[in-house]
Amino acid sequence: MNWEIIGKATQFIAEEMGISLKRSALSPNIRERMDHSCAVLDKDGRIVAQAEHIPVHLGSFKIGAKNIIDYMNENNIILKDNEMLVTNDPYISGTHLNDVTFMAPVYNKNKLFCYVINKAHNVDVGGPVFGSLNPGAVNIYQEGIIIPPVRVSGDIIKFIISNFKDPDTALGDLNAQMAANRTGIKRIKEILYKYNENDIKNSWDELIYHSRELSLNAISKWPSGEYESEDFLEGNDDLIKLKLKLFINKNGIKADFSGTNKQVNYPLNAVLGVTFSSVSFSIRSAINQEIPTNDGFYSIIDLMVPKGSLLNPERPHPVSGGNVETTQRVADTVLLAMSRFLKEIPAASSGTMMNIMLGGENNGKYWSYYETIGGGNGARFNSNGESGIHSNMTNTLNTPIEIAEREYPVFFTAYKLRRGSGGSGHYNGGDGIIRSFYVKNQTYISVIADRFKVKPWGLHGGSPGKNGIIYIISSGRKKRMPGKFSFKLKANDEVIIKTPGGGGYGNR
Fold first, then answer.
1. CA terminus-to-terminus distance, the chain
2. For residue range 121-167, what is the model confidence (pLDDT) as tens digits?
3. Which ranges carry the Hydantoinase B/oxoprolinase domain (predicted)?
């Protein structure tokens, strides 16, 4: 029997789970932007197959699944057939509170066979700001409610949506996540009906082994050595350093972040799952061949991240921005190190997800809206960078303005490329985006973004891309805003967002 048949079937199960989730979700964030991910795990928590969805979710399953199973073992939680577990605890699941994770067992002949798992960014998970990504948070309790790994029940779901500001949308998204897991369970059982259980397990072992061998073969073509880089995030009043030593050899890759800044008291800390995700994404992107995304690929990567640092914080430090902004900077730092020996690595892309959270009251109900906005990609050794695109760790779609206007009290006044914002060079960086809107009612806005001070770097003589800029026009006055803030907008106030361009590559 060809193990690849079962391997491909399992990969398609993860993909189908994602399609189910997207099509049945209520929020534009999942339905339009596809801010979700799905995977199949063996009973020990190894990733067998993973759908190619959001990069920041992908590697985090490697850390999060193990943490969840460890938690279940320590707390004597045994999921029965038709039961599910839910959690959003970042220090366990591996991202941030907005990413709600559902995991369900698959039984065969009354014995646990494997798990299916998905996570999706729920627009609002409580806390003091709409959208829950709180720029002013000094601890995790100011970012929303924490759901420890717990069995799903009607009472648990009622408790959860009672703390989310838009319960109707939240309930629809949570139901979509549970339905996606049921789809996965159904498809796994169809494979079990068709093939012998041991054949499936052996095929999964072979799939993981094959992925590891492909990965090691790919990096064996890279020059062994130690490569250093550093980059910076923008704190409230200072710059936060990320420093990396990347060790490459034929046996694997080690990323040592020992020189990185200590944990901070604002929401830019990144839990270990996010850090691993960013590193693995960067390495996977640099490997120029098709490799199944599973535990085999992840096994070639080793992290050295001191506990209590920005990239491996201790509870209860806030982490919401770590998932969206710090993850981008980790990717930049790893890619910069790899540019020392790979000409194919591009200059820096926009380097921010440009997270916009809006909310308020409309027609007697609270609403919450979240979107990320693309920017310019960095130029490459043989071409200009792409303009107006999500890059690196975000990889979502833009929310269509027609959808946002139909469902929320906002009206868009511009959505176009920010011409000339890409860095110049032999090849130019891609241009960012200008996206502006006014609000019809009093609205609360929160923003967590970056690259407002430190420009996206160019490579080999190329110029950096332009910084991000946000203006608010209120009562006829135009005010330039920082990269991280919360503000109360009056009816007809306008917000103008200009995202960074990518860096240039090579001298003109």
1. 56
2. 999 999 999 999 999 999 999 999 999 999 999 999 999 999 999 99
3. 3-507
